[in-house]
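Open question from group meeting: does this chain pack into something compact, or does most of it stay loose? Before anyone orders reagents, we agreed to write out a predicted structure and look at it together. Recording both the input and the output here so the notebook holds the full record.
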Amino acid sequence: MFMFLFLVVALAVVVAAVTLAVVGGGESATLPEAGPERVEDPLPQDRPVNRADVETLRFPVGLRGYRMTDVDDALGRLGAELAERDSRIAELEAALAAAHATTGASSSSLHKPEEGDQ
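Structure tokens returned:
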């Protein structure tokens, strides 16, 4: 009999606690909305990205890992900068090859011995 009364009282306490937790006992019954934990701008916009920027880049952890939009934005920016640098490197290499071809052709015509000079 004692055990039955103990269980009834314990059940009443649990029901009362759950009711108070659901209804809320304070002035504000609901919690305020939490702002999104998003990196505003992980990479600098005023200059090209360098190695230190990439090494210090950290993303906030979301519910199931990293927020895809943060990672996609950063990877998109890095991809665009790499494509721009690759294009510039190809342009400079083509200009260098053209300059070597021009100087090589002019220097070989200047130093080419004529047949009667020997």
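Observations to bring back to the group:
The longest helix spans residues 68-110.
Residues 108 and 114 are 12 Å apart (CA to CA).
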